[in-house]
Design brief:
By secondary structure, the protein is mainly α. The chain has 29 helices and no strands.
């Protein structure tokens, strides 16, 4: 069995005391420039060349410009000299692992495998450094080399193994972490904490980016995410919603004893499966879609890892109190970061984890409300009525769930919503939704400061109401000016029609199709701009009470923006029709550039204001952020 202790330093005459400063500097500079001809010096190969006690090999590996230089230098040095360490006790292999220089690592390990077992001042093996600095290629090589050359491996030692597992999780290498747990089950079944009181399940419980709930996807990304199947090559796929694109069903193999109708459905279902597989393979040729598929695989791997760690934690502890408190920390971390997938697995494994609490007696749903994590809060819809009643807990300050909802959301959560008015609307929606789960006796209850939840809400959101009022007025003022200008222009156009009038007082173009389009679009523009003007004026004269931000003000803003958009569009049609009647009569080709130019202001309005309109409509009349996420029970 190979020893993990640090091998003895070789005794060379020049170690720690280079023979000549100029000679040392010349070789140092040559090394930095990958100039082997000038750096070639057998006496200097094992000498310290700077104040950090680095050798030429440290610098050559760290520079990483020429692997040829490293090869020559390693050939020149004796095997024992490769273990020389700098002031941080880093060997050249540690430097290669830290910087992700895989080729240099291969050269060094081939000559002296003992380097794999040498720790630095932080007690880290090279494999730990590769994981810590997220160099996956180097990490995979070092793990394989360590397994091939040393038995037991450094990470078979429990502390080193748990440390490596945590580092893999932090760096996002969930596939490697799964493989490590698979080959070393003790890392999940024997509970141990490392520095900073950390352990694997706690580490992954704060990695929001590792799960679907922690990724903000646009419409197309969500569509791709739900359409493209995920395929895990190295691990069993337990997700029933995924599709194996490598082994599609054979349509020629029909199960025996099936009726004609059953045969039809079987053929149809199998054909649909094959078409889906072909579509998935075609979609994966697009780089953006392939990136989404890789992200899905990462999420699936992270979830599998959580399941393995939960099962391991249950088997590692026999005392109920220890089990509760060891589940307590990852449960609170997951609730704090809004990772409902982890919470679901934790509570499924150990149902009492639902009562996890911190020093302030805050439970997971209080964390969800404080941090405005709707994914965690929505787990309440998956609970039985009895459990919904049981979670009506009061903390040490006498605050109910509704008191907690009355407090202002964290700024980073407010910033996810555009505009102070919509932020205030979202806060009211949270307050109203939490109120549904609070028993009637608690809705008017006062806390230790003699304040009800409504009083706390008003105090906490006083500044946000003022900011929302200012945002609404600024938006309305700008749109009011635009609506008034449009109304003025189209009214003038209505009384000065193109082509003048005939002797009977009728417009000369009154029988032209273009004139009918002109008249109709002009009327629509005038009416819609007037309606928009009135809506924005009503916003300016509103009382701006808290409850107005929930439906009243957003509804007026929606009507004002929609009518303003219609008035701009119809005004462009009016102008285009006039231009065609006056200058393009019987010249159809003029319609193309006119229509193209008329689309410019409409396109600009859509690109600049349409996202705001969509946000307002979605937040006011859309499905909202609350609701049941699945039929999976949450105890």
């Amino acid at each position: 069995m190979a020893s993990s202790s640090t091998p003895k330093q070789p005794s060379h005459a020049h170690i720690g005391g280079p023979p000549d400063l100029r000679r040392r500097l010349a070789v140092y500079k040559a090394t930095m420039k990958d100039d082997w001809e000038r750096a070639q010096d057998e006496d200097m190969a094992t000498a310290y060349i700077n104040g950090y006690h680095e050798t030429l090999l440290h610098r050559a590996v760290g520079t990483g410009r020429s692997i040829h230089f490293v090869e020559k230098l390693v050939e020149l040095m004796p095997k024992e000299a490769l273990v020389l360490q700098n002031l941080r006790n880093d060997t050249a292999l540690s430097v290669a692992a830290r910087l992700g220089n895989t080729k240099a690592a291969i050269i060094l390990v081939d000559k002296n495998p003992d380097l794999l077992q040498m720790k630095n001042n932080d007690g880290l093996f090279p494999v730990h450094l590769a994981a810590l600095y997220a160099h996956k290629e180097t990490l995979l090589y070092l793990m394989k080399a360590t397994t091939d050359h040393h038995h037991p491996t450094p990470y078979a030692d429990h502390y080193s193994g748990v440390l490596l597992l945590v580092q893999l999780i932090v760096s996002g290498f969930y596939d490697v972490a799964l493989d490590l747990v698979h080959h070393h089950p003790d890392l999940s079944t024997k509970f141990m904490r490392i520095e900073n009181n950390d352990y694997p399940l706690k580490a992954i419980a704060r990695k929001a980016s590792a799960f679907r709930s922690g990724c903000r996807l646009n419409f197309w990304q969500r569509f791709i995410y739900s359409s493209v199947p995920v395929k895990l090559e190295n691990y069993p796929n337990n997700n029933p919603n995924t599709c194996d694109t490598q082994n599609p069903a054979d349509i020629s193999q029909v199960p025996p004893q099936m009726s004609g109708r059953e045969n039809y459905y079987y053929y149809f279902g199998t054909l649909r499966h094959k078409l889906r597989v072909l579509l998935a393979k075609a979609m994966l040729l697009v780089p953006h879609i392939k990136h989404i598929q890789e992200k899905m695989s990462g999420h699936d791997q992270a979830l599998q890892l959580v399941k393995r760690l939960c099962e391991g934690l249950i088997h590692s502890i026999t005392d109920f109190d220890d089990t509760f408190w060891n589940f307590n920390e990852p449960t609170l971390e997951a609730a704090r970061h809004g990772i409902h997938e982890v919470l679901q697995e934790l509570v499924d494994t150990f149902p009492d984890a639902i009562w996890s609490r911190d020093a302030n007696e805050h439970y997971i749903f209080q964390f969800a409300i404080i941090n405005r994590n709707e994914n965690v809060f929505n787990l309440m819809y998956q609970m039985s009525e009895f459990m919904q009643y049981m979670i009506n807990l009061i903390d040490k300050n006498g605050d109910t769930l509704l008191h907690v909802a009355g407090k202002l959301a964290p700024q980073h959560k407010l910033n996810l919503v555009s505009g102070a008015a919509l932020q205030m609307q979202r806060e009211l929606q949270w307050f109203k939704e939490v109120e549904k789960f609070v028993i009637p006796a608690y809705r008017e209850m006062k806390n230790k400061d003699e304040k009800t939840a409504a009083m706390i809400f008003s105090e906490e959101h006083e500044n946000l109401v003022r900011e929302g009022e200012k945002w609404m007025k600024d938006t309305s003022n700008s749109c009011t000016i635009a609506a008034a200008l449009i109304a003025t222009v189209v009214f003038a156009a209505a009384i000065t029609v193109p082509g003048d009038y005939n002797d009977y007082g009728l417009p000369n173009f009154n029988k032209e199709i273009g004139f009918i389009i002109f008249a109709m679009s002009d009327a629509i523009s005038l009416f819609t701009s007037s309606a928009s003007l009135l809506m924005f004026l009503s916003i300016l004269t509103s009382r701006y009470a808290e409850q107005d931000f929930l439906y009243s003000l957003p509804k007026r803003l929606i009507i004002g923006l929609v009518t303003l958009f219609l008035s701009i569009t119809s005004m462009m049609i009016t102008f285009s029709a006039t231009l065609y009647l006056v200058f393009g009569h019987k010249k159809a080709w003029i319609l193309i550039p006119t229509a193209a130019l008329a689309c410019l202001p409409v396109t600009l309005f859509v690109s600049l204001q349409f996202p705001l309109l969509v946000d307002v409509i979605s937040s006011t009349y859309g499905p909202g952020i609350f609701g049941k996420q699945s039929d999976r029970p949450f105890y």
